[in-house]
From TrEMBL:
PROSITE patterns: HEME_HALOPEROXIDASE (PS51405). It comes from the Eukaryota. Belongs to the chloroperoxidase family. Residues 1-20 form the signal peptide. One of its GO terms (molecular function) is peroxidase activity. Its cofactor is heme b. Keywords: Heme, Iron, Metal-binding, Oxidoreductase, Peroxidase, Signal. It holds the Pfam family Peroxidase_2. InterPro entries: Chloroperoxidase, Chloroperoxidase-like_sf. This is Heme haloperoxidase family profile domain-containing protein. Residues 65-315 form the Heme haloperoxidase family profile domain. Gene3D superfamilies: Chloroperoxidase-like (1.10.489.10).
């Protein structure tokens, strides 16, 4: 009975439907994705050959009228969380102002405001809905009465969605650029100003986004090192760690950069970085105002036709992975600082992938797509007993994954061996998402 109703509810919302927006067209997005597949790095292209042209009219992102900046009213129940891109989108009405949206809201809003491609926005949105939300949508902050399951009673599932802020190890990860490690700060969603200062200092102005990204590698390594040397609970998981945490370093230069005739591929200024991260004041004396992430006025997003796709993002992940291979390895500290231990990829994947494999061919995508299904959805309430429920709840994601895997020629992953994580307290004390470690 339960399963039947659940299947009906899930059927009502297939993954393909989610990304089928008339405005841009899934087919178009797919073509862009295809054209980028296999390209190792955007840096490999000739800088002289401009990939895109600038068109002010279509790239302007409105910050007036319906899109004027309105900060959250926390007392009235608005929520904000670890993602500055979504926080700013909510403050400007590109996604619902209360911070709780449907899949369609997120896919459309991130495309409209930033030029995030439908494949990437769609995947991230489905992932959030399945693991941290109610299948139809999710909260960009913590749990809220606005994201109670419309389907809850119908489905007979009792777990409460915890939102992005409660998704530590599932979606939200340690070693983020500006957000602190959960164990160290008891908070994983607010800016730690010294970290922001470091990011600000590391950003080189007046060069194109590709060059800016390449120069962020030292900052990325320093953040990784900081977690190793200060956080005994540091855990770097296959999905939230290896695949999501790099987004914090690439997304700003790829999707918060302003575009112009001079920099058709974008160039992010320090001032724009401050605005998107809710920072005011002077360097050395920054002030952070929670929830005030803001899209700058007179700001131009990525060119239409040059949206930031899954292959584009993976090229950026590989770029840093090649320069510093530990970034692609799962591992963590074992309860003391400086005890970082790698998980053997072969053992974790039951022999399907071996160390070093992820740098080759489609392997990173093959691995990432398949390990993305390893977490437990909040709405199951921590009960993994009913495999039927789990399969059904994962369906929107497994359908999306199955569709993307077609044609990639991936070795098939038959689950992962989570016992490999037993030595990591950062995982053991928060195996399925959490918003805090017990003291
Ligand atoms: C549906 C779309 C999106 C989802 C579900 C999402 C979700 C998340 C999550 C869960 C995190 C925390 C990751 C971590 O702890 O390392 C995060 C961080 C981040 N996101 Fe998003 N995001 C989305 C779109 C965007 C967009 C469009 C941008 C940029 C315009 C963006 C920029 C960032 C940045 C810069 C961080 C790192 C924050 C920091 O620690 O400094 N995101 N996002
Ligand atoms: C997408 O968002 C824009 C602006 O936020 C809105 O005007 C448009 O109606 C939305 N489209 C869909 C299909 O939701
Ligand atoms: C890592 O951090 C330690 C302690 O802060 C420092 O001594 C070391 O130089 C750092 N290493 C790198 C590669 O940044
Ligand atoms: C973005 O670039 C345009 C030129 O295309 C410029 O007029 C505008 O001031 C810049 N916006 C910001 C926020 O820096």
């Amino acid at each position: 009975m339960k399963a039947t109703l659940l299947s009906l509810a899930v059927l009502a919302m297939t993954a393909t439907e989610v990304v089928a927006f008339p405005a841009i067209g899934a087919e178009h997005a797919q073509k862009i994705a295809e054209s980028q597949r296999g390209k190792r790095s955007t840096l490999a292209r000739s800088p002289r050959k401009k990939r895109v042209t600038f068109d002010a009219a279509s790239q302007y992102t409105s910050t007036t009228g319906a899109h004027a900046f309105v900060p959250p009213n926390f007392a009235a129940g608005d929520v904000r969380g670890p993602c500055p891109g979504l926080n700013a989108a909510a403050n400007h009405g590109y996604i619902p102002h209360n911070g709780v949206g449907t899949l369609g809201n997120f896919v459309n809003g991130t495309n409209e405001a930033y030029g995030m491609a439908l494949d990437l926005g769609g995947f991230l949105a489905v992932y959030g809905s399945v693991f941290d939300g109610n299948l139809l949508g999710y909260s960009i902050g913590g749990p809220t009465s606005n994201s109670q399951l419309p389907l809850n009673n119908l489905l007979g599932l009792t777990g409460a969605p915890q939102g992005l802020s409660g998704s530590h190890n599932k979606y939200e990860a340690d070693t983020s650029p500006t957000r602190g490690d959960l164990y160290l700060y008891g908070n994983n969603y607010e800016v730690q100003v010294p970290q922001f200062q470091h990011y600000y200092d590391a950003l080189i102005e007046g060069v194109d986004a590709d060059t800016q990204y390449a120069n962020l590698i030292d900052y990325r390594i320093a953040r990784f090192n900081d977690s190793i040397t200060r956080n005994p609970y540091f855990f770097y998981s296959p999905f939230a760690g290896v695949l999501v945490s790099p987004a914090g370093f690439s997304f700003p230069v790829r999707m918060m950069a302003n575009h112009s005739e001079t920099f058709p591929e974008g160039s992010l200024s320090k001032e724009q970085l401050m605005s998107f991260f809710a920072i005011t004041g002077k360097s050395g004396n920054f002030k952070y105002t929670v929830g005030h992430e803001r899209i700058p006025d007179n700001w131009y997003k990525r060119a239409i036709g040059d949206e930031y796709t899954i292959p584009g993002f993976l090229a950026d992940v590989l770029d840093f992975g090649e320069k510093y291979p530990p970034l692609l390895d799962v591992g963590g500290n074992t309860g003391k600082v400086d005890s970082f231990t790698f998980v053997d990829l072969g053992s974790l994947t039951k022999g399907v992938f071996a160390a070093g494999d992820l740098l080759h061919g489609n392997n990173l995508e093959c691995y990432g797509l398949q390990v993305s299904q390893a977490a437990l959805p909040d709405i199951l309430g921590g009960a993994e007993t009913d495999i039927g429920d789990l399969t059904q709840v994962l369906k929107p994601l497994s359908d999306t994954v199955a569709e993307r895997l077609l044609g990639l020629g991936c070795p098939k992953l038959d689950g992962i061996d989570k016992s490999q994580y037993n030595i990591f307290p950062g995982y053991n004390n928060c195996p399925n998402g959490c918003s805090g470690y017990k003291a």
